[in-house]
Amino acid sequence: xxxxxxxxxxxxxxxxxxxxxxxxALDKAATAAHLKAALSRPDNRAGAEELQALLERVLSAExxxxxxxxxxxxxxAGGGGGPGAAEEEALEWCKCLLAGGGGYDEFCAAVRAxxxxxxxxxxxxxxxxxxxxxxxxxxxxxxxxxECFHQGDHTGHxxxxxxxxxxxxxxxxxxxxxxxxxxxxxxQIKSSSNIPCVPKDLLMMSEFVLPRFIFCLIQxxxxxxxxxxxxxxxxxxxxxxxxxxxxxxSFLEDLTKMGGAMRSVLxxxxxxxxxxxxxxSGLGENACARKSHEKYLIALKSSGLTYPEDKLxxxxxxxxxGASTLAVQGFASATGTLGQxxxxxxxxxxxxxxxxxxxxxxLSSNTKDQSIMDxxxxxxxxxxxxxxxxxYEFPQKMVTFLLxxxxxxxxxxAFTKTFVQHYAFIMKTLKKSHESDTMSNRIVxxxxxxxxxxxxARQVTEECQxxxxxxxxxxxxxxxxxxxxxxxxxENSLHVVVNCGEALLKNNTYWPLVSDFINIxxxxxxxxxxxxxxxxxxxxxxxxxxxQGMNLNKRELNEHVEFESQTYYAAFAAELEACAQPMWGLLxxxxxxxxxxxxxxxxxxxxxxxxxxxxxxNFVDEPAPNQVTFHxxxxxxxxxxLSKAVKCQELDLDSVLPDQEMLMKxxxxxxxxxxxxxxxxxxxxxxxxxxxxxxxxxYVQSHFCNSMIDPDIYLLQVCxxxxxxxxxxxxxxERFKVVDLLxxxxxHQNTVLDAEHERSMLEGALTFLVILLSLxxxxxxxxxxxxxxxxxxxxxxxxxxxxSLLDLIPENPNPKSGIIPGSYxxxxxxxxxxxxxxxxxxxxxxMQQGMYTPKAEVWDHExxxxxxxxxxxxxxxxxxxxxxxxxxxxQSGKFPGNPWPPYKKRTPLHPSYKGLMRLLHxxxxxxxxxxxxxxxxxxxxxxxxHVLCMVLYLIELGLENSAxxxxxxxxxxxxxxxxxxxxxxxxxxxxNMRHFINYVRVRVPETAPEVKRDSLASTSSDSLGSLQxxxxxxxxxxVAERRKKxxxxxxxxxxxxxxxxRPKTSSKWSAPGSAPQLTTAILEIKESxxxxxxxxxxKLSGKQNSYYPPWLDDIxxxxxxxxxxxxxxxxxxxxxxxxxxxxxxxxxxxRIIEEICRKVTPPVPPKKITAAEKKTLDKEExxxxxxxxxxxxxxxxxxxxxxxxxxxxxVDSPESDIxxxxxxxxxxxxxxxxxxxxCGQSGPSxxxxxxxxxxxxxxxxxxxxxxxxxxxxKLPISEEEQIYPWDTCAAVHDVRLSLLQRYFxxxxxxxxxxxxxxxxxxxxxxxxxxxxxxxxxYMESLRNDQVLQGFSVDKGEFTCPLCRQFANSVLPCYPGxxxxxxxxxxxxxxxxxxxxxxxxxxxGRPGAFPVSIxxxxxxxxxxxxxxxxIKNTTQKKYRxxxxxxxxxxxDFLFMYxxxxxxxxxxxxxxxxxxxxxxxxxxxKRSCLNQLFHVLALHMRLYSxxxxxxxxxxxxxxxxxxxxxxxxxxxxxEVPILYHDVTSLLLIQxxxxxxxxxxxxxxxxxxxxxxxxxxxxxVALSVKCNEEDRSAWKHTGALKKxxxxxxxxxxxxxxxxxxxxxxxxxxxEEGTQECATIIPVxxxxxxxxxxxxxxxxxxxRIASLLQHHLFGEDLPSCQEEEEFSVLSSCxxxxxxxxxxxxxxxxxxxxxxxxxxFDIISQWCFEINSFTERQAEQxxxxxxxxxxxxxxxxxxxxxxxxxxxxxxxxxxxxVCTKVPKDPAVCLVCGTFVCxxxxxxxxxxxxxxxxxxxxxxxxxGIFLLINASVIIIIRGHRFCLWGSVYLDAHGxxxxxxxRGKPLYICKxxxxxxxxxxxxxxxxxxxxxxxxxxxxx
Length: 1893
Fold this sequence. Notes:
80 helices; alpha+beta; six-stranded antiparallel β-sheet
């Protein structure tokens, strides 16, 4: 048939493609055996030829491909043979031939026996769960399969489980990648020695067959590939070919799994060049093969080599100076490979094209090796296979096959070389691919296996120029998306940068190549080669410069930007991955002195690249205004290598620094970023949209900060330490645009800043200076100190979980850098600085995680505000740290007020950076500080406490770091010649502090107050002269100062620089014309910094003369200056601390301070400010105060709300609005009054305007989950453990009902039991009431409110308007007093007989209600609608149990069962018994009373036919017993002894008119107790054996005639036994029966206990009912006396009953009719039933009434046990492993979350299960996420996890993969919420699931 198919399609066939003769085909095995024998002979040429011919026939390459071309026709023509048949045939042949005539499976087993399994090498694909152990790994990429991991010993190691992103392979057994101690048991033994040699003939056939087979595969691949027109293969075609080849590739994959012996054969075949040559060249005669070969050549051509016409394009370009024409030519041939400039691409790269090319030409000069560029030439099968693997975009099967071969060492080397050879081609294919994500993962899947191995990487680097190839390929990849840089000089810029909007960057397409590069740089031997190779470094710096200045931001000044581009994330990711990570990799190898040379190389080429960059952007000395880029990778490379050189290599810093001019240029752009950060935080960039804030945040964010802001600040520190300090300081203030603010005048004009931004920009400038001067990250701190400082900063902001700390602490991004998270130092530092707070649980509170919080001594000594400011992403975190600090000081009693940030002593500076401190001792800074102090003292506007704080901080820093030469300073200070600019005499802060400044000339607007007044002074010429002499400080212009310095430096560094500097026009600095003219005025100041500080002290303390020098009292202070008193405090403390330090530093200062204090000056009144100005100055202050006030109000409001919520939610708080006030014992009936929470009115509930309780109705199956055994069920964690639900309460009740329905009349059955164990309706309320009409309008408003609520208004859901508790209905309150009044409760002395009659009469009277049903009132309407709600709450299957659908009996059963459900649940909430007594636990929140009214009203609509009323059977003796039985054809009624007594109680109560008399209630309970007791006796009699029975029968009979025989259980028991013996109940006991009944020795005590336990459930429910109906409290008691207490509470016990002798339950009996008569009547019914069905008769009697409380399944201690079993478990429907497996925690069912396989009528499995198992409530554990999800009706929420790791944290989605352990408290909380039905109230985040879970 296959032949026919082939013929039909292929047309004329070459002769050798005949199918072998049928005989041959049938007997493959024989042929194979024959060939094998032939080949084993010494002269095997004939055999070889015969085999070749056979293979030629079998593997004819033409067939499948023809089929692939038109498969459909083939299938039609060949009559269904289809394209698959021929291939299967071929595969069968191959298997047969390999096995050489034997069975293929035996052959496999035989080969496996020779496997030296030293390596595991298991290959997995994405989403596989694997393990990584950092303790055992040598390479950071090491991974283990689960099996090897669990078989090795990793206890106490730092390991985690992870889901593989890209796929991987198991490294167990590979000592290059992991330590041998971690190997598993299988791979520990080096077993190669004892594995026998492989027999030659075993694999002989394989060696012949496999080359042909692989060649055949390659031909298929060639044939199937069509070079598409657009150069993008359509994926459909490729996938089609691959599907056809699936069996062949799988066959190869299976071969690799046979072990080492087969792998080495495959390696030989794949790498043998001769084989390849022979097979591929001998194609001449076969047309088909020739065609495929041509296709191959075409594919090869586009693989790399440029098309010839491209050469011309390049030749025309003028070659750059450096490159020879030849290089350009060579380069051109390459770019086609990489740059992809083939003709199709030409048009779409517009104007930037020419520019890009020019750049490329410049680069080409260092491409050393032509071979990188050349066409691929294939020499072996392996090479061509890899080629097609790439061409077909890495199909998973092929990748797996190639990787499965890796354990073979020879193959590994060959494959790695081949991979490197195809590297450029891989890049090219990747760029074109549509599925670049998938492809990237597959590439990395391969490369990580090859390049993680250092030995291999080194070998390939040496032999195949791996580094050159990688760098060149990366360079070309980026070249395709370059654009012109607009930084600085837009028109003339020659610099090109990557365009972050391109797909290449946006989709991170480059990451596989970059990650390979980072991977190989982590090997020392490879990195050294890189650092030694100058050409490579130049190329690499070129590559880095593509990122320099990318993603430029221009400030929008007019309107808001229309489209916020999100390219910034691509830019940050690119810099981090492509520049920073390789940099960290290189840095990790520059740790020792011997590597100095490397650093010099990098620094040298880095500086060259920077110089080129400055030239390219035409940069001179001023950055262009209003633009900023956050990306300066060249600066950062330079900075980081400098830092390393000084820190680790002991290089002299000056030897690697450039000249001053270059330093000045270097500092400009990083400084620009710092200023822009301040601008962004001052909202000056608000028109650029949110993304600019995103950039500012990303720049300092923990993953980026040490590759971004830290190097920038370090570089600025280096520049500052080497440049002129005055120049540097003035540059800073100019960049921050606050120069104009720094004037003594009260008014000024700022030409570059709006007034509202001045204050925050000034704060920004000062903060930056503080950070610059106090940060020591790169200036002398050790790694451990850095780690500690980082950790303290993070912990001070907030308490942190362990994982968030790990995430927030910046680590060197390169994984091999030594400080890995979870490493030893991390844990030890953490335990030194923080305390662990275990998670706490408040029920109803949020789930907390284990947190770390700073130790007290950390707050005391290590809290460092500077570090906090540097590391905060959100400004609020700084405030949070200060608030926590304040709280600590208050709590520890160290400081009561609002403290200022503490001043922290710094680590000593490394000597290389000593120059940095000169900034603190330069006049410019001192002038600024003096001016600011003066302005603050004078209350000028725009100065905040923050400014003052920073000013004082800088002064203090200066005093700490001052030069020590006190003596000569004093001598020379008086020399007037130093005062050349009349501000300060010298540059030392210590001496300048005491220098008095008398007058200052300022430039002020003409309108300023200073002008008017000073003009008077200047009239008298002599006074002016005197001013002149006393040294008036000149108008000080920072800008002029800076210009001057700049000019000086440039002149000094090179004389011809004058031509370079463009003379700046000062237009930018002159005021715009509209503003008032500036004029010069002279101010009288007469202050020094010291005197200003002292006055400031007075001002801050609000007292005159508040400062008194402390050393006058205690001279000791000067000797030991470190006084704890000064370490924490506010501004006053800071001023005192500074003055003390100043006095310490110099005797003169000390003297002057004393002098100033003696002069006792009143604080300077803020003169020179008129009222009008005062207004403007105060405006800001007032705003600030208003802001504070608002904050305070909000806080107060929040706390009020909170306290309200607490009381509203509080269970026991007695509140005024409790609707169930228990009325006092006045005779008159007071009506209950209700408050409506919507309209606020209070009043009674009336017929016309009824009030209702806010209630939540929900279906519940919690009761049905009770089991009768104490042993809790465990979650199954193996196939053996299964949970069967037949012992649950629900199942037992179901069985009972269906049994009754089989034998008895349906309507009677429905009265004999309760339903609602599953799907019962539970009603709960928050206790708030509202008018029903108010509620309707409230619902209307909710319906119109379009805000997304978490609930559905259409389903009637809402939240209580007062306490926001979730609700879905309103239960009307019945008019009248709420709790029946005492009149009704007075015990009357009527006899029980009278009461029984009354009860019967009342029941028979229909509708004896105050409300007549006929008149439709609002109240009755509401009652009906709420009844409808109750019915609709549960599903139909939980309401309809009748055989005749819709029968009224069904509704009747449903209604009294609702009451039963609510009572039973309340009992469970109380712990299953009533021992605790007291009011209901749900105190004011119980709504049973109202519920009873509603149910009773509806129950009375169905009057029971008085014939069938069970009441008569209970209280009257019927005359003719026989009439009871019913005739044969009509089913009998249920015997009364089979009735459920609790159900009878509810039926009787609800059939009575409400409100009920207490007498009637007691009467009903008494009557029912007699029945219950009898049931107990019957059950007991059935339980014991024949001998016991006859013994009892006998003893009881003797006492029968005593006086209280009716109240003695033995008499009654013996009577019951004798009555029942008349029937067949006991007779059926065959021998088999006896075995089941446990022979218990029944003593009177045990019988009494049995009877009490039998009756207790009824008594409990009756007592609860009485409590709710009559408002009586329940007494509390011990468990053993519960029976007697409840029975006396219910009035069953006669009042005179004494408690001395042991209590006997029978004493509670009160028979309404003679006991023996009624009992025999009841027993007769049973006897007549057992005549027919003795077995069932007995089953129905034994009612098990001891149900244990419901529990969720017990979970194992360790999460891994659940995970390992369930995450691989298959779905029962589709037998695949579900994507999101889940397991129900109530019943243990395994379900698929969102699985489409298990979907039924649009309901997914979890939703369905939640309806079937929990009537709409489902609790599922998501296996892959360790999280619990709750489904409630149509909503769901994520509840959290009950499994926490060792640090008390959840691990949602198992992202961290650390071992998790059960948290018992959390599980208890979950179970509690399930039982108490409070999921809706406690969990806040609900969403609709649309049945899709």
